[in-house]
Amino acid sequence: MAEIKSNPLNVCTSDDGKASFWAIADPVTAANAARAVYGSHAATAAAHCALTAHFDGRNGDYRFWCTVFHELAGGQGQLPGSAAAS
User: Fold this and answer.
1) In a domain, 20, yes or no
2) d(C-alpha 55, C-alpha 40), whole Å
3) Number of domains comprising the chain
4) 35 located within any domain
5) Taking the alpha carbons of 37, 33, 14, 82 in that order, is the dihedral positive or negative?
6) What does the longest C-alpha to C-alpha distance in the chain come to?
7) The domain containing residue 31 runs over which residues?
8) The model's pTM
9) Does 33 map to a domain?
10) Do residues 64 and 20 lie in contact, with contact meaning Cβ atoms separated by under 8 Å?
């Protein structure tokens, strides 16, 4: 069986050491992919991903999916954690 090697660069991890899309993915690219896959339901899919990440305690992923949702919503409103949202 092949040996599983660690990721010495920690490219896919967040500040807490957990795997995260936030470190490697582009929210605009993710929004375009969501549009291609989910069509008019893309924002709902991104919101679902954001909520799942939030309730799983994956803060980096939550911020990523909120940014994707924000992109899909045309940049309207405030993102969680922004100065205006506080």
Assistant:
1) no
2) 25
3) 1
4) yes
5) negative
6) 52
7) 27-72
8) 0.65
9) yes
10) yes
Q: Alpha-carbon distance 35 to 54, whole Å?
A: 22
Buried/exposed 42-73: b ≥16 CB within 10 Å, e otherwise? bbebbbebbeebbeeebbbbbbbbbbbbbbbe
Per-residue pLDDT of the chain (86 residues; tens, 9 = 90+): 455 444 433 344 455 566 665 667 888 999 999 999 999 999 999 999 999 999 999 888 899 999 999 999 886 555 555 555 44
Residue 29, class by beta-carbon neighbours within 10 Å (0-12 exposed, 13-18 middle, 19+ buried)? exposed
- What whole-number distance in Å separates Cα of residue 51 and Cα of residue 65? 9
Q: Is residue 10 part of a domain?
A: no
User: How far is residue 51's CA from residue 47's CA, in Å, rounded to a whole number?
Assistant: 6
